[in-house]
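Our collaborator T.R. sent over the components below with a one-line note: 'Predict the complex.' Nothing else. No constraints on interfaces, no templates requested, no preferences about which chain binds where. So this is a plain run: every listed entity goes in together, and whatever single assembly comes back becomes the starting point for the next discussion.
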Amino acid sequence: MKQKANNVTIKKLAKELGLSISTVSKAISDSHEISAATKQRVIDLVEKLNYQPNPYASSLRTKNSKTIGVVLPEVADSFFAQAINGIESVAEEKGYHVLIYLSHESFEREEQILKDFESGRVDGVLISVAKETVRHKHITALLEKKIPLVFFDRVIEEIETTKVTTNDFESAWSATTLLIKKGCRQILFLSFSSTLSISGKRLEGYKKALLENKLKFTPGNIVAFNNDSKKDYLLLKKKLKQSEKGAGVIASVEKLALPVYQVCEELQLRIPEDVQLISFSNLDSAAFLHPPLTTVTQPAFEMGKAAASLLVKALERKNFELADEEIVIRSSLIVRKSTL
Amino acid sequence: MKQKANNVTIKKLAKELGLSISTVSKAISDSHEISAATKQRVIDLVEKLNYQPNPYASSLRTKNSKTIGVVLPEVADSFFAQAINGIESVAEEKGYHVLIYLSHESFEREEQILKDFESGRVDGVLISVAKETVRHKHITALLEKKIPLVFFDRVIEEIETTKVTTNDFESAWSATTLLIKKGCRQILFLSFSSTLSISGKRLEGYKKALLENKLKFTPGNIVAFNNDSKKDYLLLKKKLKQSEKGAGVIASVEKLALPVYQVCEELQLRIPEDVQLISFSNLDSAAFLHPPLTTVTQPAFEMGKAAASLLVKALERKNFELADEEIVIRSSLIVRKSTL
DNA sequence: TTTATTTACGAAACCGGTTTCGTACAAAAA
DNA sequence: TTTTTGTACGAAACCGGTTTCGTAAATAAA
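Returned assembly:
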């Protein structure tokens, strides 16, 4: 902290060149006010001294930081990892920096993070909300401060901004319909949140498929996970033990899939003979699980990329206004051996 | 961009309170120069107006940004995803912000990223170098500018700074020894880089185990992946086809494991009967692969956490000096069914 | 009572850029 | 020739904090 290496500043360049600070600044930004000859002298020296302008000085004056804030519930999940890739791809291309924050599914943490964003630290934000998030003053507060925000995957419907999602309803419907076609008469729906719109949609798709096939919807078939792996595990075990032979299971989110394998192993239930399983998942290893997992695979990279593109596009316009629209990028149902 | 909402600045607070800007600033930072009563008035107003100090103004003056830069080769890999988690855990606790950059294994990209860091954008950096990285002027340049940097996992031995690694040599030795004990007389070593120290160490551990068991080291048994999935795939296929019955395979990095499953499937080679496999991997799904994968599991979270802790500790000291030491956190060999 | 400290605060410089505005000189138009 | 316009640049304000330094008033020491 004491003494940072005496960095080369624009002032030094100016002195060295016998020019004023403003001239140097303009030359660097290729202003038409500066002659070609002077510009050349400046960029030559910039190269020679390896001048790196202080981004914070610039941010302070211009009020933008070329930085976007990304808020995720977690990162050790293929979906989010791939989404980051998508986000980074546009950030890199467009010269933006990305600050990453994890809410760990906590509403309070998410609030703190977004509150910090009110400081002007980021030009815009990309968020996939925590499962706990129900209120959303923290989000509207940002929007009111004219800090653009786009949701991806886990959105809040009520907020008027751009949202990038996948066809959750339809995907759950397809998955459920497949299970029914394959003979399941009881289908457990593993849910990780009772409030998230994404969960709601998936559940609705599931319900619709049941209805269309004259199967009664039974609340007891919804298995509500709570992020407490021990309890969740026992609950799942109990439910699977109680389930009828040939039941189906839909894991509405990736992390709920592996526990099913585990429980089945313990209960000596064979997949797919005794239990058929479909999971929303982006695991690369899905094809090599035992047995290979039938998945609803989300276009994670594309979703991240689309969200970032829309955000950046808004940032580049003079008056960015993010339309209140929902971009839907379709998931695909990849049938493997965990279903008959 | 036009008009950001008129944010509340320290100047407004001062005017509102009838105090000077400096007094307000000091009150906020709990300076002893300010009376308790005044401090209270200030923090009350701060609360009331939801004042968020502009981080860039502060950074400009104080020369530090409470931000660390994290440079990774990729993110869609369990190891790095978990490492980010570890890093974030200390960043969150210590009030640091984390900027994420991906080199995508490109040396040029890595150079650009580090060059940007010379601007003072970050207080310190955490890096796991790209597989292409051989030269390292870009890293020493940072160090010379007194920007502390700690390596994790993929380190550069020659550079004198703190490095957090795992016991690569020993782990590879253990894995190889296990395969030999299980009867393998030919063992393929899947390598993803010929220059990275991490690869070198793993290879050495492999060689040592061979030697100890009077097995000859054959260069032809090293399968060099090139990040070109099609070619790599064909190469692996060729090598496996040529390999003797009961051969062993060591995937020196996670992403090389699944291709082995794939190729074995195509060649109708059974794991572990025809091919025994061990992979360096942090995949949660390893236990549920077909067959379950024997892994060298790295303490990814802990490594990220340790690296971040050391970095932050250095940043908090008046004269941060990162010792030229290597912190080794041990991996564990988890034996599953992909080995006999 | 006088002098030395301490307490509590304000004025102003400063961080390193960007941007506005003013101007000298040259070239073009009247 | 005079006026207008354009070109190329510099002075200085500005962004919003932090920090140094100075000082009036209150308190303690002499």
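Summary for T.R.: Residues 54 and 137 of chain A are 34 Å apart (CA to CA).
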